[in-house]
Write a structure and sequence with these properties.
Elements: E1 4-10, E2 14-21, E3 27-34, E4 46-47, H1 49-70, E5 79-86, E6 91-95, E7 105-106, H2 114-121, H3 125-133, H4 142-152, H5 155-161, E8 165-169, H6 170-178, E9 185-186, H7 188-191, E10 197-198, E11 203-204, H8 206-212, E12 221-222
Parallel strand pairs: 1-5, 9-12
Antiparallel strand pairs: 1-2, 2-3, 4-7, 6-8, 10-11
């Protein structure tokens, strides 16, 4: 079988996986798996990170089965690259060593930090945030969500004290899982949706991290979007 590319699209209501020929980009198989939406109270929207991960694995398995039905000689070793696209502002907290997640992810639609954002808009921070990040201060983005998680989930401070806290967008969570906890990385297209990314320096902004109380050590390493983010390990569905 020719070389294959796997594309993972982790969206708000479901996860898709598609296999393409690496040379022609012809799509050979595609499957989507949905997962539950969680609404604890009006204005709050959450996802169970385990549901997200299971939906990704199941989509890959179903897409691979579909591919093998058409091309029985295909082997998992033919997969030479994986691309990930995802719901960007949704954020997750997890333990760097064990991989344990600290409750549900806060989805981009979640509005629980609206009052915090209104307060920042009325302060001197509003223009500074816009100038550095290109974004308005809105609950849509990850910064105030991460701040809320740090203030409302006590285990995060305990994990941070031992350098075991990971705060990330969905791409970094998936890469962490795909690499069997070896890679904690993100790219500028995801980092730039957090209210924490300085567009001029191309890195996390120390002053904005201080504003939201987000420890830099808990954030993913930013590498170019076309870079190598890690290697898959320990998964039966992938090489």
């Amino acid at each position: 079988m020719a070389e294959l590319i796997l594309a993972i699209d982790q969206g708000t209501t479901g996860s898709s996986a598609a296999f393409f020929l690496a040379d022609s980009l012809e799509m050979l198989a595609h499957q989507k798996v949905e997962f539950p939406q969680i609404f604890p109270q009006p204005g709050w929207v959450e996802h169970n990170p385990d549901d997200i991960w299971k939906s990704v694995l199941t989509a890959i398995e179903k897409s691979w089965s579909q591919l093998q039905g058409k091309h029985p000689k295909a082997r998992k070793e033919d997969i030479v690259s994986i691309g990930v696209t995802n719901q960007r502002e949704t954020c997750v907290a997890w333990h760097r060593t064990s991989g344990e997640t600290a409750g549900n992810a806060l989805v981009w639609q979640d509005r629980r930090t609206a009052d915090r954002c209104l307060g920042l808009r009325d302060s001197n921070w509003n223009d500074k945030i816009r100038q550095r990040t290109g974004l308005v201060c809105d609950p849509y983005f990850s910064g105030t969500k991460m701040e809320w998680l740090l203030k409302n989930r006590p285990q995060l401070l305990q994990w941070n004290a031992t350098n075991n806290l990971c705060l990330g967008t969905i791409d970094s969570f998936l890469i962490f899982k795909l690499s069997n906890h070896e890679s904690f990385t993100t790219d500028p297209t995801n980092a730039s949706r957090t209210l924490l990314f300085n567009l001029k320096t191309g890195n996390w902004d120390d002053e904005l991290l201080g504003l939201f109380g987000v420890p830099k050590s808990a954030l993913a390493k930013i590498i170019p979007s076309c870079g190598a983010f890690g290697k898959t390990r320990g998964l039966s569905v992938l090489p």
